[in-house]
């Protein structure tokens, strides 16, 4: 029997996380650009320091603690992959009203 916390969040939950990630990411960028969930962070000039800043912003906004063991770069290639990690591992759905 699958418990609700063990299930993978539905895709619409990722959309809210992706939007938040892109919002926080836009604050870091020096020049305005079109952002999308599948745009690689590296193509935007976001390096490892930028990723750490982004994670810290998300921790504060979403009120969770990121596990350093999850610092696998496959999760930090773009907003979609980071949203999937936050949804699946941390059971986050987006900012709470």
UniProtKB/TrEMBL annotation:
Q: Which SUPFAM superfamilies match?
A: ACP-like (SSF47336)
> What highest taxon heads this organism's lineage?
Bacteria
**Entry-linked Gene3D superfamilies:** ACP-like (1.10.1200.10)
Q: Which InterPro entries match?
A: ACP-like_sf, PP-bd_ACP
Q: Which residues form the Carrier domain?
A: 8-90
Record's signal peptide: none
Listed Pfam families? PP-binding
Protein name, please? Carrier domain-containing protein
Which organism's genome codes for this protein? Dickeya chrysanthemi (strain Ech1591)
The organism's taxonomic lineage, starting at the top: Bacteria, Pseudomonadati, Pseudomonadota, Gammaproteobacteria, Enterobacterales
